[in-house]
Write a structure and sequence with these properties.
The complex is a heterodimer of chains A (about 100) and B (about 675). Chain A has about 100 residues and is mostly helical. Helix content of chain A is about 75%, strand content about 0%. Chain B contains 27 helices and 4 strands. Chain B starts with 6 loop residues before the first helix and ends with a helix. Among the domains of chain B are: about 305-575, no CATH class; about 580-665. The chains are: A mainly alpha (about 100), B mainly alpha (about 675). The interface between A and B is medium-sized, with 13 and 13 residues.
């Protein structure tokens, strides 16, 4: 197995995630796209951790576990925000959430 | 006690502050503090007196040519007690001047201390009733305490600088007390007049102290100054000037001619204050200064030489002119005031003719009978609510027996009737004048004695005899007023005997007070002379008889001032007090005031106004320039510019703030991508 294949997978996943974040109008789908980005990073971490350096060091894997944990918390907060937006505006369309317009 | 006599002024000074701060909250409005403090001082100064009587004494160093007629055999002198601390030091090395503060206790100081305490205490007692219910009762007692402090500081002082403090303290307090009822313009004017007139004399004191400070080897110490003045270490010309300067101070403070005009006006104050001012403090301060710095006067004016000298002339003039003025007064207090001026003239004249002991003794006895007379006048006015003898008094003998009899005793003592106090002291002065080569002043003194006796007959007659001319029913005063009167009456009878021959070992008082200066200067002493005493008694009795016939016998020619032109002129002259007040306020003050005021006005209009206006105009021009260019142009421009800049910048950035999260996200990712590209490209 080559490292490049994993990195290509990560890059593809990351790009799909970015696209989702920037292009989707639904708030829940944007959160899901953020998850994709995070998991793309996780794949890179594990790949570097497995392929590079000493085999016994599991720094990359541990880092990925941390990211998954933090991502879970992030989703909790994000979904709560989306829920509150829905309660206030009865929509989750991000184009309608422009109260910060200058 | 002689060592630590400083506690006496300290007590009254503390009492002043206590009354000032806490007096109003106390049950007796602060009077109890004053009474207690002065009572304590009386006890302490009595103790000091007894200690002085039993004090260690040593023979006077006999010098060749000592006075032939020495009375005291062998001459003994008590050693003065000094207690000094360093007050402050100026300069360094050789030029260092050490100024000391301290007390110098000799017979003179002890006697003054005792007399001041007695009079002040009785005045405090008297005032509890006389001033009861007064609006500023507490402040009155505070000022009395401070006044007494001033006199204590002066009499115990060992140096001239400290004496000056006491002297000025009294000046301030007399101002406060004379103007006690300042709501009336008349009283406040009198207070100002007293203050300014005595200040005029104080210039002399400052000059005199300064001259003596430099000439006596940079010292304020009174003993040193006296010693150097007497043994010729200070040049004669300098001494003359110093003595003249100090004499001016004495004239101002002791109300001598021609600066006596303030004292009768000072009657505007409460009567007990007048008693205090006239008997124990303030006016006798001048006499005390004269007696204390006697070495300077003795050498400067050559008092021992006989003939004539300024001190005697001032004193003699004052005796006669003040006694003459006492005849035309209708206000009982003013009669007594002029009497005080006249008696102070006696003391000053006595010092001028070399009768030092006589002067001090006359101060001692005069304090008692003059305080008695003033408090008696206060008691009378308490009953009839007026001081006018002609309009509101008469026949008070019936209603006020205690006041009447004590007043009679005081008057006889003042007139100098044997054996009351005034007789002994006046006799000693006249004897001294006669034997020291001042025969002219002895005659002046006898004329003064004649006039004194006569005007007191007039005063007593108008007040206590004849028909009552006032309104209402007069009544005898209560105990706080009569007890001091009786005490003072006893003292007025007995005080003179202290210096009588053949009593207490003969001239006891003289031996008590005669101090170092007295002995160093070899001031002559004279034994009691029966012919001189008979002569002065004859004069006094004639005066009493003549005046008695004129007043009591109704032989006084009525309307003499209307019928006789010279009498009218004389009366007008006296009633206007020799036009001295007109001279001072009209000619001297007016003459100086007018040109000075005009010059000051010119300077004000032309020079000062020019400067002020010029300064104003240039400041205005400068201000306008600043306003127009710097403030409006530069500062406002900067402020407005930054505001406008911030606004347009804000407008520019506003477009970025669309509120769309995904647009922000795109920018973020775009920017990050660019940075990453740059990182990858340029950082290797």
């Amino acid at each position: 197995m080559l490292l490049n294949e994993f990195l290509l997978l990560g890059a593809a996943l990351f790009s799909i995630g970015v696209y989702g974040v920037l292009a989707r109008k639904n708030g829940v789908l944007v959160l899901m796209s953020i998850e994709l980005i995070l998991n793309a990073v996780n794949i890179n971490m594990i790949a570097f951790g497995y392929m590079g350096g000493t085999a016994t060091a599991v720094t990359g894997q541990v880092f990925a576990l941390f990211i998954i944990t933090v991502a879970a918390a992030e989703v909790g907060v994000g979904l709560a925000i989306v829920l509150l937006i829905y309660r206030n505006k009865t929509t989750v369309d991000l184009d309608d959430v422009d109260a910060m317009k200058g | 006690m002689l060592e630590n006599v400083w506690v006496i002024p300290a007590i009254t000074f503390a009492s002043f502050w206590l009354i000032l701060f806490f007096g109003k909250r106390l049950p007796f409005k602060g009077s109890e503090v004053g009474l207690f403090a002065v009572g304590l001082c009386l006890v302490l100064s009595t103790i000091a007196g007894f200690q002085w009587i039993n004090h260690h004494s040593e023979p006077v160093k006999a010098e060749a040519g000592a006075s032939a007629e020495a009375v005291h055999e062998p001459e003994m002198m008590r050693v003065p007690v000094d207690h000094e601390v360093t007050w402050f030091e100026i300069g360094q090395g050789k030029d260092k001047i050490k100024v000391e503060a301290g007390t110098h206790m000799d017979g003179l100081a002890v006697v003054m201390l005792f007399t001041v305490s007695v009079i002040s205490f009785l005045v405090h007692v008297f005032s509890t009733n006389y001033m009861a219910g007064d609006r500023r009762f507490t402040h009155y007692y505070a000022a009395l305490s401070l006044f007494t402090t001033g006199m204590f500081v002066l009499v115990t002082s060992s140096n001239t600088l400290q004496a000056l403090f006491g002297w000025e303290l009294m000046g301030v307090c007399s101002f406060m007390l004379i103007g006690h009822w300042w709501e009336e313009q008349k009283n406040s004017d009198a207070a100002l007049k007293a203050f300014f007139t005595t200040r005029t004399g104080d210039i002399g004191l400052l000059v005199g102290i300064s001259i003596l400070f430099w000439e006596a080897g940079r010292t304020f110490d009174i003993a040193t100054i006296n010693a150097k003045a007497l043994n010729g270490q200070i040049g004669h010309t300098v001494l003359v000037w110093a003595a003249v300067a100090l004499l001016i101070a004495v004239i101002g403070k002791s109300a001598q001619f021609p600066l006596h005009t303030w004292l009768p006006d000072a009657m505007a104050g409460p009567t007990p204050v007048s008693a205090l001012i006239h008997a124990a403090t303030m006016v006798v301060a001048g006499v005390y200064l004269l007696a204390r710095l006697y070495g300077v006067f003795w050498s400067g004016f050559d008092i021992g030489g006989g003939g004539i000298n300024p001190v005697a002339v001032i004193g003699g003039t004052t005796i006669i002119i003040a006694a003459a003025l006492a005849f035309v007064q209708t206000d009982i207090k003013k009669v007594l005031a002029y009497s005080t001026v006249s008696q102070l003239g006696y003391m000053v004249m006595a010092l001028g003719v070399g009768a030092w002991t006589g002067a001090v003794f006359h101060f001692f006895t005069h304090a008692f009978f003059k305080a008695l007379l003033f408090l008696g006048a206060g008691s009378v006015s308490h009953a009839v609510h007026s001081f006018d003898m002609v309009e509101d008094m008469g026949g008070l003998k019936k209603w006020m027996p205690k006041t009447f009899w004590t007043f009679i005793i005081g008057s006889l003592a003042l007139a100098g009737v044997f054996p009351l106090a005034g007789f002994w002291s006046k006799d000693e002065i006249l004897l001294g004048a006669g034997k020291n080569g001042y025969q002219f002043f002895m005659i002046v003194g006898l004329v003064g004695a004649f006039m004194t006796a006569a005007y007191m007959v007039r005063c007593v007659y108008l007040t206590f005899f004849g028909e009552f001319r006032g309104h209402g029913h007069p009544h005898e005063s209560p105990a706080p007023i009569t007890v001091p009167l009786i005490t003072l009456a006893v003292l007025s009878v007995g005080a003179g005997l202290l210096n009588a021959p053949k009593l207490f070992g003969g001239e006891w008082f003289g031996r008590l007070v005669e101090n170092e200066v007295f002995h160093t200067a070899q001031v002559p002493t004279h034994a009691f002379s029966v012919p001189a005493a008979v002569l002065s008694m004859a004069v006094v009795l004639t005066a009493l008889g003549v005046a008695g016939i004129l007043y009591f016998g109704q032989k006084l020619p009525r309307g003499v001032t209307q019928r006789s032109r010279p009498a009218r002129v004389g009366y007008t002259f006296l009633a206007n007090r020799y036009y001295l007040d007109h001279l001072y306020t009209g000619v001297v003050v007016g003459g100086i005031k007018g040109p000075i005021a005009r010059a000051a006005y010119w300077v004000n209009q032309n020079i000062l106004d020019g400067i002020v206006n010029g300064a104003g105009a240039s400041a205005r021009f400068f201000g306008a320039f600043i306003y127009k260019w710097i403030d409006q142009g530069a500062i406002d421009g900067a402020v407005n510019g930054s505001g406008a800049g911030a606004e347009s910048l804000g407008q520019a950035f506003r477009r970025l703030q669309t509120g769309r999260v995904q647009q922000y996200g795109s920018l973020l990712f775009g920017a990050t991508a660019l940075l990453a590209l740059a990182l990858v490209t340029f950082v290797r």
